[in-house]
Design brief:
The chain is an alpha+beta fold and 307 residues long. The chain has 7 helices and 20 strands. The structure holds flavin-adenine dinucleotide (FAD).
Length: 307
């Protein structure tokens, strides 16, 4: 019922019964009732207004590099930011601010800033997905994260209004960004970079490239399956508990990196969740540490299964 009413009021590209599996880096997931692709902030605001009135479930999707959707039919709407890719440079003498839409690719930011001799985004080399997704989860590597770059963020609020968060009005930490909430869209980000010597930028890029080389290459994954517990590494714990190579259906714990669960061929999202639950339980039994998922389980109200 809500779908019929909604379709006549949507002013952006949308599709019914959209297969989500090609949109997730893991290549899993079923179909969603409605898939909408706003191409600007106004269109996104109008979707949030409609949701506030009609109350349908809404899921935000960036690059799909850190999510799992259920295998069956997902009720509600997936809002994809992939068309929200606007970009604007604001250049000063020593510093440059880049304003991008939430759907702009993080890899493009790395590429473009490095080309311009700007420093700041080198740590994000090899982190796939969008700037909005990276901000929402404060993606990072090697002790640096997107929060370090954020000068200002504009969000679409649950009621469809816009809110600006200047630096100092938000907090961030390990995979944490204070404005992030299920019904709040990161629509625009202003990122600050400083001019640096070419050699320094190239050197930092080389270091992050070396760091990436230990991760599974070419496999379908959603990055690290679990967050690092305080003062420890989830990968180390999983490895020491013998999780490498464990398999449930088509889901496999990578031999290259124990915190990467890969789609070894025809995995279902149920396989991914079961394998994550198995790994979590093994680590808990052997070490007493309860690992928390880093991958976002979208449309699974119960979270990981318990055995
Ligand atoms: C090979 C590989 C390597 C990776 N390496 C790293 C790494 O080194 N460090 C790291 O932190 N992560 C890493 N990741 C995980 C992932 O790439 C990041 O978390 C990335 O920032 C997710 O962005 P996305 O656009 O793909 O978000 P999605 O996967 O689409 O969504 C992730 C979450 O963010 C929310 N979201 C997405 N866009 C928005 C938005 N505009 N506004 C509000 N919420 C939004 C979604 O609702 C969901 O909850 C890796 C993943 C892969 C596959």
């Amino acid at each position: 019922m809500w779908k019929t009413r909604l379709k006549s009021r949507l002013h952006c590209v949308f599709e019914e019964e959209k297969d989500l599996s090609p949109l997730s880096a893991l290549g899993v997931g079923g179909r969603v009732e409605l898939f909408a692709e706003p191409s600007n902030v106004e269109e996104a605001c109008s979707i949030f207004c409609l949701r506030a009135n009609m109350g349908f479930p809404l899921y935000i999707l960036g690059g799909g590099t850190n999510v799992v959707f259920p295998d069956g039919k997902l009720e509600g709407m997936v809002l994809s930011t992939r068309r929200m890719t606007g970009r604007r440079w604001m250049t000063g003498d020593d510093e440059t601010v880049l304003e991008v839409g939430g759907g702009h690719l993080l890899s493009s930011v790395v590429h473009e800033t490095v080309k311009e001799g700007l420093s700041g985004a080198e740590f994000a080399l090899g982190i796939p997905g969008t700037v909005g997704g990276a901000a929402a989860g404060n993606a990072g590597a090697g002790g640096r994260s997107v929060g370090d770059l954020l000068e200002e963020v504009t969000t679409v609020e649950a009621d469809g209004s816009l809110r600006r968060w200047k630096r100092g009005e938000f907090e961030y930490g390990y995979r944490y960004f204070s404005p992030a909430a299920p019904n709040r869209l990161v629509a625009l980000c202003r990122l600050r970079f400083r001019r640096a010597a070419r050699g320094d930028v190239d050197c930092a890029i080389g270091e992050f490239r070396r760091m990436r080389s230990i991760q599974p290459q070419g496999a379908r994954s959603a990055g690290c399956a679990f967050k690092n517990p305080p003062q420890d590494s989830a990968g180390r714990l999983l490895d020491s508990c013998g999780c490498k190579g464990l398999r449930v259906g088509g889901a496999v714990v990578s031999e290259a990196h124990a915190n990467f669960i890969v789609n070894g061929g025809n995995a279902a999202s149920g396989d991914i969740l079961q394998l994550m639950a198995l790994c979590r339980d093994i680590v808990f039994r052997k070490t007493g540490v309860r690992l928390e998922p880093e991958i976002k389980l979208m449309g699974f109200p119960e979270g990981l299964p318990s055995f």
